[in-house]
Amino acid sequence: MSNIRRNKELEELLQSWITDKTGIKSAFTEMIDLMDSMEGLIYSFKSRPGISHSLRASVDNGEEKLLTLMDIIDDDPGNRWLSICFYAETITDPDEEGELIPGGLLGEDGYCFDLFENNEDTVSYLKERIRDAHAKYF
């Protein structure tokens, strides 16, 4: 099992992320802490300052398949927000909070959720989607 917290580039971003009026950093770290507690995940992280910082969590169960794509949108570093996407086939969206993106997630249908502030109910809802997606593979 890989631990995203060991990624030097991510840790540098988190340490330098000081301005966080909306609590997005805390919401992001809650979700990566959840994923770090799950078995069978591998991560990649790509930082494009001023554009986005992308975390891909994939399952490693014989075939590498995307679990979630979490982008920290960085067009305004003082007011970052999150876009969290899943393959449509791996989650449910009972409250219809996500946006269906036909063919828009690596060529497959996906659901994306935008988070502009740390809202406990929304973060809990997104964590449940992470659990849904993980359960589809294990």
Q: SSE string, helix = H, strand = E? A: HHEEEEEEH
Output the radius of gyration.
14 Å
Contiguous uncertain segments of 5+ residues = none
Distance between the termini: 14 Å
Mean pLDDT: 93
**Total count of domains:** 1
* Share of residues in helices: 25-40%
- Coarse structural class: alpha+beta
How is the secondary structure organized here?
Elements: H1 8-16, H2 24-36, E1 41-48, E2 52-60, E3 64-73, E4 81-87, E5 99-105, E6 108-115, H3 120-137
Antiparallel strand pairs: 1-2, 2-3, 3-4, 4-6, 5-6
Explain what this protein looks like in three dimensions.
- The chain has 138 residues and is an alpha+beta fold.
- It has one domain (4-137).
- It has helices at residues 8-16, 24-36, 120-137; strands at residues 41-48, 52-60, 64-73, 81-87, 99-105, 108-115.
- A 6-stranded antiparallel beta sheet has the order 1-2-3-4-6-5, covered by helices on one side.
- β3 and β4 (81-87) form a beta hairpin.
- The model has no long low-confidence stretch (mean pLDDT 93).
